[in-house]
Design brief:
The chain has about 280 residues and is α/β, with parallel strands linked by helices. The chain contains ten helices and eight strands. Helix 4 runs parallel beside helix 5 and helix 9 crosses helix 10. The N and C termini lie close together (about 10 Å).
Length: about 280
């Protein structure tokens, strides 16, 4: 869609037929905004492998928006990964989000032949050459399992040097954390685009739990205002829309190469921000 910036939306594969039909309805609505691509997540340890595959192929083939599957190496053998890559390549998929991935609850230590996302990027390049545009994850506020920020920056640079084309960040609510991260990794030689991941605010309790678990900082002033609204969802959503819109304005004004919206399989929260920003269609 855009020559200078790219805009994309992320979905997760659903467990029920009704949920899947809703996902397709939302995807068709978002497709009307001509995003550069959709992405679809991959459950811990590959637990949604088949549902991710089916969702990706349907979004790409029927909704007609290029769709990038998430692919993780935790719990998968090279043979399993090779089969998935061949399936996606044969279906005409051209973009992959390559992740280390999360372990399912109770699995313990990492399994699989590839231990790190950088290993997975190298594997994809070795198997498929330049066929796929490879996205990797970035953590402006540090990966929750990293030993320290400096170590995390080096690991990110290693992923990019392994052959990634661009990166999508974990969501955040402080634009300065994004700009600081980009500045630091540029000094490590990373030149590829790093696109901010954007999480609309629609429910305070769920957002607070998820943010605490994944290491995304919810600023105190935002947290306190959301707490003050209690069960007033309308006020929570209106305030959240304002906060995230202002942050996106700052990101784009500061040179961010686009935005990647974590939709949670809903259209309206992301589109409210999109329309506030006056993004192209």
């Amino acid at each position: 869609m855009s020559q200078e910036r790219r805009y994309s939306f992320e979905f997760f594969p659903t467990k029920t037929e009704a949920g899947h039909e809703k996902l397709l309805t939302v995807a068709r609505q978002l497709a009307g905004y001509n995003p550069d691509f959709f992405s679809c997540t991959y459950g811990a340890g590959g637990s949604t492998r088949d549902r991710t595959l089916n969702t990706v192929l349907q979004l790409d083939g029927e909704v007609k928006v290029p769709t990038a599957p998430h692919l993780s190496c935790v719990g998968d053998s090279k043979a399993e990964l090779r089969n998935l890559l061949n399936t996606y390549r044969d279906a005409g998929i051209r973009r992959i989000v390559a992740l280390r991935g999360d372990l399912p609850s109770g699995m313990g230590m990492a399994s699989g032949e590839l231990r790190h996302a950088s290993d997975l990027v190298e594997f994809i390049r070795a198997e498929t050459g330049g066929h796929f545009h490879i996205e990797v994850a970035a953590y402006p506020e540090m990966h929750p399992q990293a030993r320290n920020f400096e170590d995390d920056l080096r690991h990110f640079a290693a992923k990019m040097q392994a052959g990634a084309n661009s990166a999508i960040t974990q969501y955040f609510f402080n634009a300065d954390s994004y700009f600081h991260f980009v500045e630091r990794v540029r000094k490590l030689g990373v030149e590829q685009p790093i696109v901010p991941g954007i999480m609309p605010i629609t429910n305070y309790s769920k957002l607070a739990r998820f943010s605490d678990a994944c290491g995304a900082e919810l600023p105190r002033w935002v947290r306190k205002q959301l707490e003050a609204y209690g069960d007033d969802l309308e006020s929570i959503q209106a305030f959240g829309e304002q906060v995230v819109t202002r942050m996106c304005e700052k990101l784009l004004d500061g040179g961010a190469p686009g935005l990647h919206f974590y939709t949670l399989n809903q259209a309206e929260p992301s589109l409210a921000i999109w329309n506030n920003l006056g993004l192209p269609r």
